[in-house]
C-alpha cells in the first residue's frame, strides 16, 4: 500500500489512504537491462509462489527465481494496465494484476483511477487486459484480489466488492451485507481488502470485516461497535491468513473510520472472527507475512516481527546493505514475504530488502539509471523535484540522492548552492571512495545551520579528486 497518498472522499472529509498506487518517478524501463534491476523502488506488494518471488511496484511487476540475482520485469508495454501495481493474485502460472494511476479531473483536480486488470495464464508471457470494472475508473482503484473456486474477487473503493465467474469477462457488484449495493451510501460497501482462507471469504471495508462461507451468498459483519471484543477500527486496509499449530488466524490492519473510539492497530482472531485481539496499537499496517508461527508486519513506522502470536514485537532497525552500505531511506514498509530458506523480503517506498539471517545482514535492491561510459561525466538527483516532507522520510526528514560515477578510487566533496550561487550546505567533504563505480550521496533538504531550505531551484557540485567537478540541478518543492 506506498509513498504517495490517495485522498479519498470519506463522509465529506479527506482521509489519507496509503494505497498501493504510486506516481511515476524518473526511471524508465528499457534504459537498463531488465535482468539487472527491479521494476521500481516503491515495492507495494510481495507474493511468494514456490521458488518465485513476485513484486508489485509503482512501475510494474517483477519476478525472480534466483533470490534476486536476476529479475524479469513487466509493465504497460508488456500488456499490464496503465500505472503502478495496486494488487495481485498469483497461483502457479495464473496471474491477475491490477494497476492504478493519478488522473486529472476537471472539477476535483488530481484523483486516483483504476488502470484495470491484466490476466495471464502463462506466467506473464501473454496478457489479456480487462477494463476497470465499475461505472468509472476514477476513484475506483482495485486494492486487493482473491480467487476462490475459480471465482475472481476484487476489492475496489468506488467499485466496491465485485466478482466474476468467467475470468473477468463480466463482473457483478456484490454487497457484503443485505443492502442494495451503494458505496456512497454504505461504508461497508467501500472495499479495500479481500482474502480466502480455505473455502471462507473475508472482506475488509470502511465498515469492518465481513465473512462468507458460501461464496458470498450470506455474510457476517464484525466491526468495532457490534462485539464485546472488537477490531480496533472499521477501516480495514489489509487482511491475511495464517495457519500454524492447528490454528487458523485472521490478521487485519484496522484503522479509524468515523467513530472517535476507534484507533489504529493490528487486529487478529483465531475463532472465525467472533473474538478479536488488538496489538501494535498506534501503527498503520499495510501488509503481513508469515513463517509458520512467526508474524511479520509492514507498517508506516517500519518492519515488525513477533514470535509469540503478537504479544510482543521486535522492531527491525534501519536496513543497510551489508556489502554496499546502501541504506533504505524510509520507515514506510508496504509489503513483506517469506520464501523458502527461510528468506525474508521487505518492500518499502525506497526499494526492496532481503535477509537470510533474521536481519543480521541485508541485501538491498534499488532501481537507478546507470551512468554508462558515455555519461560518466554526468550526474542526476532523484527524486527530482524533491519534497523533504514526502520523499524518503526517515527520522522526520526527507532525503534525496545525488548519483555520480567514479572511474577509480577518489575523495568526494558535495556542495549545494542556491540560485544566487551562495553556498547552502556541504553535504560531504573529502569522503573516501576507495574504488570506482556508481555512488549516491544523500541530502536531507537542510542548510548548514540544520534549517529546512526554502522552495526553489538549487545547484549541487560534486568534486572528485583527479577529475573535473560535475554539476546538477534540483528543485525543492513542498
SSE arrangement:
Blueprint: E1 6-10, E2 13-17, E3 43-49, E4 52-57, E5 60-64, E6 72-74, E7 84-91, E8 94-105, E9 109-120, E10 128-130, E11 142-148, E12 151-156, E13 160-164, E14 172-173, E15 191-197, E16 200-205, E17 208-212, E18 220-222, E19 235-244, E20 247-255, E21 265-269, E22 277-279, E23 285-291, E24 294-299, E25 302-306, E26 314-315, E27 333-339, E28 343-348, E29 351-355, E30 363-365, E31 380-382, E32 400-406, E33 410-417, E34 423-433, E35 437-443, E36 456-464, E37 470-476
Antiparallel strand pairs: 1-2, 3-4, 4-5, 5-6, 7-8, 8-9, 9-10, 11-12, 12-13, 13-14, 15-16, 16-17, 17-18, 19-20, 20-21, 21-22, 23-24, 24-25, 25-26, 27-28, 28-29, 29-30, 31-32, 32-35, 33-34, 33-36, 36-37
Could you characterize the architecture of this molecule?
Helix content is 0%, strand content 47%. A hairpin with a 7-residue loop joins strand 17 and strand 18 (220-222). The strands form ten sheets. The chain has a four-stranded antiparallel β-sheet with strand order 3-4-5-6, with no helix packed on it. Residues 1-32 have low confidence and may be disordered. The protein has two domains: 6-365, YVTN repeat-like/Quinoprotein amine dehydrogenase (Methylamine Dehydrogenase, Chain H, 7 Propeller); 373-476, Immunoglobulin-like, CATH 2.60.40. The protein is an all-beta fold and 478 residues long.
